[in-house]
Amino acid sequence: MESSQEVEWTEERAIKALEENQQVMIPGLREQAKGQKVHVEHEFAKLKGVILGNPESMYLPDPFHPSWYTSFRSLPREKLEWMAANRGRHVRDVDRALWEKMVKGLEALADVYRQAGAHVIQNTEPPPEEVINYTSGWLGRYGKHWAFHAQAFGEVFGNVIVNFHETQPSIRYNCVEYVEAFMGLVENDPRAVWMAMPDPLPLPTAFGAALSPGDIRIFPDKLVLVAHGVFDESDIGDRNKPRSSGNELGAEVLRRMLAPFGWRVEQIYFNANYGYHIDTLMPVLREGLIAVNENVLLTELPPEIRDWERINIEPEEYVIGAGNSVPLDSDSQAITEGAKNYIREVEKRGVNAVPVPFDEVYHATGSGMHCATFSYWREDD
């Protein structure tokens, strides 16, 4: 795709482009969705189709920009300062060794998914400049593209794709790179419904309806759990105090979107000093089994899952991504390889732990395997 800065458009050229269908942004991405289905029963149904992030789409944000800081404030100070010193630069150009580990992690994760029988949709080529600079209008010259973490594209509830808008503009718009993949999914599945939450920009997040896929856990019987992170328990009743990611208005918008399809949305609160998204803190493994540190949840879970067994994740394993594991089915879980204690506890319960080299990726970015994965098809046979 030519850069818009290099094209002088005329009526004749526009007509020719339309007739020849030359405006393909990511060649081949739409075709990767051929034969795929859009359907997610719940979090631990058998994984059959995913979109993975792009290792070429990793431009560091300014972590102290208000749109980022709420989510990033739980990261170590030295990590925030490192990001700030290199804002707007590609990870490859800042720390090539780290970038290569991130590439290796994505490749290993893709292999795990394929071996589990899942179809993988992924772009691994550099996106066009228009995509890289898509959010610069709101974030300035440092507000560039980040699409390593594909889960920020949204979630699927039954046959309904929902694109989210969370507090981080660069993250919420990384689905721009993959819009042709979504088109392909909808074209290939006549039952698929594609929806998007209202865009809060350019308003400040506090005035918008913000929500992240990382705020979501999907349970059987069409139960959606939205979890809001607060930095002090007393902040729960004060909506003027920042949440770590989405907000209550975003959860209400999601409730209204999903209600006609029979889904129920419930909200809880957690201690954001442990992490900014519930999908970094509370993996769902199978019916009756979750994992979460005993000090994370600040309010009760919904009644139907309140008595589920809980594996306690140790704080030192949270920082390498133990809480960001991915179910392959109800008997198998992809887990970052360094989380030895968590792996041991999972296997005690009869769940097969599949190790993936994602420790350093999580330690560097605060996001791991689940964040890198958009699951569009989960269905038990």
Layout of helices and strands, plus pairs?
Blueprint: H1 11-20, E1 39-40, E2 47-52, H2 66-72, H3 77-85, H4 91-94, H5 96-115, E3 119-122, H6 129-132, H7 136-139, E4 154-157, E5 160-163, H8 169-172, H9 179-188, E6 193-196, E7 216-219, E8 223-230, H10 248-258, E9 264-271, E10 284-286, E11 289-291, H11 303-306, E12 309-311, H12 315-318, E13 326-329, E14 332-336, H13 340-348, E15 352-356, H14 359-365, E16 373-378
Parallel strand pairs: 1-16, 2-3, 5-6, 8-9, 11-12, 14-15
Antiparallel strand pairs: 2-16, 4-5, 7-8, 10-11, 13-14
Overview of the structural elements:
The longest helix is centred in the N-terminal third of the chain and has 20 residues, at 96-115. It contains 14 helices and 16 strands. The chain is α/β, with parallel strands linked by helices. It is globular, with a radius of gyration of 20 Å. Helices cover 28% and strands 19% of the residues. It has one domain (37-378): L-arginine/glycine Amidinotransferase, Chain A. The chain has a four-stranded mixed β-sheet with strand order 1-16-2-3, with helices on one face.
